[in-house]
From TrEMBL:
Residues 1-39 are annotated as: Disordered. InterPro entries: F-box/kelch-repeat_ARATH, F-box_dom, Kelch-typ_b-propeller, Kelch_FKB95. Residues 42-70 form the F-box domain. Residues 22-39 have a biased composition (Low complexity). Residues 7-21 have a biased composition (Basic residues). It holds the Pfam family F-box. It comes from the Eukaryota. This is F-box domain-containing protein. Residues 75-352 form the FKB95-like N-terminal Kelch domain. SUPFAM superfamilies: Kelch motif (SSF117281).
């Protein structure tokens, strides 16, 4: 391990931009944090979340975080295997691996509350039923600086939410959720809040949600066409310019499960039911991504991310007692006349082995 790290240090001086960032991260690893594909020592109760660091000059580095049920997380970054150099001939072969990165004192997180803005990942926590009446001693919004791998607190949500879903539009975080109205759990009301990441202030103006005529309980969200879309039993979109909610066609909600979705250049992609699709908003129709792409089983755990304008796909493969995490990089080509999008798999490989009880949760794109 130490010899491989020494080689990384020597290569560091020859690298710039993204290469430097990746090396600076991996050189801090202790001998107990393996960089090979051998099984790392991970807890059984694990939350895996991912983000990509997108450089202006280089392809992004890809990272992953694992988390216990209490605040103790393990983070990973995608890097070249020891003694490997990246060439055009090797790009489609297995030269990448997820290596651990130390991120101290990571707070609890869940899929709908994790979003990325610039070089930061925002973790917006919902309140559990047991915590609903407790006084918060710290903020329920924390921010991970992906340059320094350190957490800081941001201003708390204006109210405690028992369920929420967050998405980003124009560097503002839009949060839809439910809160308890009165003393009964039978009365949950919708609420909607906007956080300006530049000013670090929650919008003080109350945005009415009564006209949505649907519950935001366990909703999912995405931002396309300049609107914040919320999917429940129907899909509604908030038009911030006209301050109103619009009902969107039911077709969009068919595969709009944000656990399986991502937005790339204002196009919504989905891997729901094991098939890669994209949503054509002009004709209100989901279409299958064309090209030599594999279909997965309907219950496969698949996560998508914007990987510098390309589609990053992570999925799981169950083995005897273990589970492999696979990564694929897919370039996208839009055919406007035919109204089709074609994908080409540039490379794919298994990048991490974890205990069978682990599962991927979230993928995010971060710019440095």
């Amino acid at each position: 391990m130490s010899s491989s790290l020494e080689k990384k240090k020597k290569r560091k001086k020859k690298r710039k931009g993204k290469r430097k960032t990746s090396t600076a991260t991996t050189k801090k690893l202790s001998p107990s944090s393996p960089q090979s594909t051998t099984t790392p020592l991970l807890p059984d109760d694990l939350l895996l979340s991912c983000f990509a660091r997108v450089s202006r000059l280089y392809y992004p580095t890809f990272s992953l975080v694992s988390k216990r049920s209490h605040p103790c997380s393990l983070w990973y970054t995608l890097c070249l295997k020891p003694n490997q150099t990246l060439t055009n001939e090797k790009k489609k072969s297995s030269v990448y691996v997820l290596a651990t990165v130390p991120v101290p004192s990571s707070p609890r997180s869940h899929f709908p509350g994790l979003v990325a803005v610039g070089c930061n990942i925002y973790n917006i926590k919902k309140s559990s039923y047991l915590e609903e009446k407790k006084e918060e001693l710290s903020s329920n919004v924390s921010v991970l600086d992906c340059r320094t791998h350190t957490w800081r607190e941001a201003p708390s949500l204006p109210m405690k939410l028992l369920t929420l879903s967050a998405s980003v539009l124009d560097e503002k975080i839009h949060v839809a959720g439910c809160y308890k109205d009165g003393g009964s759990w039978n009365y949950l009301k919708n609420t909607f809040h906007v956080f300006d990441t530049k000013t670090q202030i929650w919008d003080s103006e109350t945005i009415p949600c009564s006209e949505t005529k649907c519950s935001f309980f366990n909703s999912r969200s995405a931002c396309i066409d300049g609107k914040f879309h919320v999917k429940t039993n129907k899909v509604v979109a908030y038009n911030s310019k006209e301050a109103r909610w619009d009902l969107v066609g039911q077709e969009m909600g068919e595969y709009m499960t944000s656990d399986f979705c991502c937005v790339i250049e204002n196009i919504l992609y989905s891997a729901s039911h094991g098939v890669l699709r994209w949503y054509d908003s002009e004709v209100s129709m989901w279409k299958q991504l064309q090209g030599g792409l594999r279909n997965f089983s309907r219950d496969a755990c698949i996560r998508l991310a914007d990987y510098g304008g390309k589609l990053a796909v992570l999925w799981e493969q169950e083995l005897f007692g273990d589970k492999k995490i696979w990564f694929a990089e897919i370039s996208l080509e839009i055919h406007k006349i035919e109204r089709e999008i074609w994908g080409e798999v540039e490379w794919f490989s298994d990048v991490l082995t974890v205990p069978k009880s682990c599962s991927i949760v979230k993928v995010l794109a971060v710019t440095l």
